[in-house]
Here is the input.
Amino acid sequence: MIRLYPINQLEVELAAELQTSLRRRGWQLATVDALIAAVALRRDLRLLTTDGDFAAVPGLVCENWLR
Here is the structure.
């Protein structure tokens, strides 16, 4: 079963804050990645990814099942 999580205004604002915060620390996060991270953070989800860009997001729990 695949669960869909709609993006709302709170996630959009969190994504913008993430991008700004990370940019100040020298880390560029794509808009779509910031939105994915925001949804995962707000809903307390574990993100399954092989994308190392998410490593810079504070508090985001990531897993790579390919390792």
Summary: The mean pLDDT is 94. Residues 37 and 54 are 7 Å apart (CA to CA). Helices lie at 9-24, 31-42.
